[in-house]
Amino acid sequence: MAPLTVIKFAEMAREAGIPDGVLSVLVGFGHTTGRTLVENPTIRKVDVTAGTQTGKVLGSIVGGNLASYTAELGGKVCNQESSSSWFSMI
Questions:
Q1: Number of domains the chain is built from
Q2: What is the mean pLDDT of each run of 10 residues along the chain (90 residues)?
Q3: Which residues face 46 on adjacent strands?
Q4: Alpha helical stretches, state H, 1-90
Q5: Calpha distance 34→49 (Å, rounded)
Q6: Residue-number span of the structural domain to which 71 is assigned
């Protein structure tokens, strides 16, 4: 249920008046959507829930861009690399 919580948090942030573009929650596959996004050098903070292998790959890219990275890897939600990954980027 954690990913649904993140989506609800984003809805509440918008309702509270947080300007568009300050918080983005993206749902997609880490090996495609996530990789494309974290390769962007203008991204300064990445927070991800993903499978262990996807998290390692994304972390190495984020680290190369000197961005801040927080990851929750493995577990019952993302125990398969084909599962969706959840991103919050600032």
A1: 1
A2: 78 94 80 84 87 88 91 65 49
A3: 69, 89
A4: 2-15, 35-38, 52-64
A5: 11
A6: 2-89
